[in-house]
Each structure stands twice: as C-alpha cells, then as structure tokens.
Amino acid sequence: MTARRIIATGWLALTALLIGAWPSAAQAPILEQAQFAPRPGSEPRIRGGLPSRFDYYALAMSWSPTHCATTDRRDEQQCNPRDGRRFAFVLHGLWPQHERGYPEFCPTRDRPFVPQRTIERMGDIMPSRGLIIHQYRKHGVCSGLDPDGYFNLSRALFQKVKVPQRFISPEQEQMVDTSTLVQEFVVANPGLRPDMLAVVCGGPGNRLREVRVCFSQDGAFRACGGNENQRRLCSAPRVFVPPVRESAASAPRRRGI
User: Fold this and answer.
1) Helix, strand, or coil here: 12?
2) What whole-number distance in Å separates Cα of residue 123 and Cα of residue 91?
3) pLDDT the model gives residue 246
4) Domain limits for position 174
5) Domains contained in the chain, number
6) What angle in degrees, to the nearest 10, is found between the helix axes of 129-138 and 147-160?
7) Per the domain annotation, does 248 fall within a domain?
C-alpha cells in the first residue's frame, strides 16, 4: 500500500468517526438542554425577568450570630456596632418568587438607586449598607416598586412575623429540633402553617442560617413554592443556634487591659 493510499484511508476513517460522534439536528437541542439545565436541587434564575411578574414573596430573615461567626469579611455595622446593639434575626431580603425559580436584576427605565435616607432608615433591621443596595438592585427591581415602596413593604412584612421568645436575644447557645423551630413560629403567628415557611441551616454543627416566610403580593401568609424546599434548605433534624454576639461597645472592660 502506497503512502498516499494510507493517508487517504486514514482520512476516511477519521471522517466516519466524526460523523458518528457529531449530534444530529434532532439530538442537538437535547444536548443543549442538558448543558444548561440547572443543577439537581437548584432553582432556575430568570435574569432580566419582568418587574411585578411573579407569584409570591419570600421574606428571608437571617440569624445574625451565624453570619457574624462565619463571615470572612469585616462587617462592623452588623457584627460590632458602635452603639452596642446585639442583633438576632435581621432582614436579609424580600424576594419575588415564581412557583419554581425566581426573577432577578429585572430591567428598569432608570438605573436602580437607593437614596441615603432609605439606607439609614433600614439600618435597624438590615444593618448593612451594601446589602440594602444589593437587595434592591437584584430583587427589589423585580417587585415593580420603587426603593421606598419596596423597603416599606419589607419592613411591614418583617414586623408582621412574630419571633418566638427564645430567639429574641438569647445569651446561651441552643440545640433546637428543626420541626420544633417551625412549630414555634406557627404558634406565635396565627394564620401561619408549616408549609408557609422554611428553615435554612449549614456550616459547622448545622447552624441556623435563616428562616424564610412566604407571603402573597398583598402581604398575607401563603404556601411556599418549590424554592423553599425544606429538605434541600436544611435536612438536619436539629440545628445549632449560636447566641447573640456581644459587641465591643457593650462588652465589660477587663481589668489590666
């Protein structure tokens, strides 16, 4: 066999192999869907969704002691405030949700801007300037409300949720059954059912991270959608609840220091 014939045979074999491996027109959409499908257990984000086109709100209340114990960033406003205040549950955000998935960064006519007066007004329940701005740009714009309207609603819903007594300002660490935590919120809030909230945990010892409560667009408790799947957010039977942090301003000074 001549060298030219060997080369020709090799090219034919390679061409056949490529044709067999290349997806057909019918196969291509399937492969594309698989490539861009959400990870198992995750919910699809709809970037650039339409403002006010959503099914319900999820009010995310973060357990501040867990954030302050695990954050890698210096967060003086929340974790070591100058006025000595100690935070327990704080407002993480109010998130427009679809029954499955959620919109984010919805387009607006003007560039999203949160006035300084609004930032200062929210500081007692949302002690992070950067978080306030980020939450409106990512989630608030999808509510169809301007910054004042969005944060007024956020405060109203945050204050509507009555926190059980043991989580008001605990000074001792606790281990709490996840089901007990849910039931205590249900008892403290008439009209709230277990399917209307979810507990988020994670980190060392399954620390309590958040409690999310679902609301209709008119501010009534309602059943959560697939985003608040309890098994996905916290499958642990018990959660560790660290105590509130003592800031430098409120801590007693030690002698000799």
Assistant:
1) helix
2) 10
3) 55
4) 45-241
5) 1
6) 110
7) no
Single-letter amino acid code for the residue at 102: Y
Closest CA to 132 of 107, 115, 110: 115
User: Within 13 Å, how many C-alpha atoms sit on residue 203's CB side?
Assistant: 18
Q: What is the DSSP-derived secondary structure letter of residue 221?
A: B
Query: Is residue 7 assigned to a domain?
Result: no
Q: What pLDDT is recorded for position 20? A: 40
- The pLDDT tens digits of the residues spanning 196-222 come to 999 999 998 999 999 999 999 999 999
DSSP sequence for 133-188: HHHHHHTGGGGT--HHHHHHHHHHHHHHSPPPGGGSS-SS-EEEEHHHHHHHHHHH
Q: What CATH number should be reported for the domain holding residue 57?
A: 3.90.730.10
* 48, two tokens: 């650039």
Whether 164 is covered by a domain: the verdict is yes
Q: Are strands 45-47 and 102-104 parallel, antiparallel or unpaired?
A: parallel
d(CA 146, CA 148): 6
The torsion angle over the Cα atoms of residues 170, 173, 175 and 179, rounded to 10 degrees, is: 20
DSSP for 59-95 reads EEEEEHHHHHHH-SS--HHHHS-TT----SEEEEEEE
